What we know:
This protein is an alpha/beta fold. It has one domain: 3-Layer(aba) Sandwich (Rossmann fold), CATH 3.40.50.150. The protein has helices at 2-10, 21-34, 52-59, 71-80, 121-133, 151-154, 187-193, and strands spanning 42-46, 63-68, 88-90, 107-112, 135-146, 157-159, 165-170, 175-181, 198-205, 218-224. The strands form two sheets. A seven-stranded mixed beta sheet has the order 3-2-1-4-5-10-9, sandwiched between helices. The chain has a three-stranded antiparallel beta sheet with strand order 6-7-8. The protein is globular, with a radius of gyration of 17 Å.
Amino acid sequence: xxxxxxxRYWERGYTAPNVDSSLFRFYGRILKPDFPQLxxxxxxxxxxxxxxxxxxxxxVGFDVVGVDSSSTxxxxxxxxxxxxxxxxxxxDIDPGKVPYYGFADNVAIxxxxxxLYYLDDDHFEICLRxxxxxxxxxxxxxxxxxxxxxxxxxxxxxxxxxGLRKVDFRNDRIQVSDYYMSFIEDEDHLKRKFHLFKPLHxxxxxxRFREDEGDGFHYTFCGIKE
Length: 226
């Protein structure tokens, strides 16, 4: 089962003691200036990893809970950020086995940075609906999704079931094998994936720091629960 293969990969750990730039910029460019009334309200960070974003969002005033299926990362995050240790929660990798993520209701904001594209079409829809069901009307949803323009991953992948592709490659820095991901083709595809939300802002980010690696192209989606 693809979820088990992905789980093994995630349990290797992803060290990220600083806030991801896409989350930081979402806060600075969209959330803070356009939605000041949401400060202090409930926020769920889906795929929180080692908790850097949870730590940041807590510091700027949100009632935040981060969820992740990697016990390695949750344990590391609790050690790195003990003051928010109780805000880092381990969740089942299978969305069908999760009643809700973080909070059951009254969620004002959901962030999902580089975390939703590891689910096949069916699990993605289940997960997205559970996140949306817990949100209040007018809530803000923000996610990033890998695009087909992320050459290093996309060109080293082959089609698999459920809208996924199996990624296998190695370079001097990382090795990726038996890893399953979905890719976004264009903005229309992105909007269809997040059909439960009214699109507000569509963007992307990409950066290339080594000539022997790809540029890590990701789409960004910000939408509103109506």
